[in-house]
Here is the input.
Amino acid sequence: MEALYTAVATANGREGRAVSSDGQVDLPLAFPPALGGDGKGTNPEQLFAAGYAACFASAMGNIARQEKLDVSDVSVTAEVSIGKDATDGGFGLAVVMRVELPSHLEGPTGEALLEKTHAYCPYSKATRGNIQVDLVIE
Here is the structure.
């Protein structure tokens, strides 16, 4: 792969800060209450969810342009869960991608668009075979 852009960020743990090299991201990090924290900061799962949702929506826009489909009213929500990984006792992630499609994309057209997007999206490629990703049309 020839890199077109490289994002650089530094973090010092789940209860610290995450800062990008250009200063555009500078966030306090905290464990969410569900994991015993005070929730007074973002967490890696939220950051991953935001990035995946944005990337997936952009990938869908690219596929839609190629197929001359209007996706201006599409909304993508990524739900990233963290839990115990039964295989090694550590932690693992799972994702549910919820895509709200307008009525003109319901049925087979929308389903095909979603599958093509999942095949094309860089985040989907990175997670494929590594974590469970469920696609849900709403």
Remarks:
- The CA atoms of residues 6 and 136 lie 30 Å apart.
- Strands lie at 9-11, 17-20, 26-28, 75-84, 91-100, 132-137.
- The longest strand covers residues 75-84.
- The two ends are 34 Å apart (CA to CA).
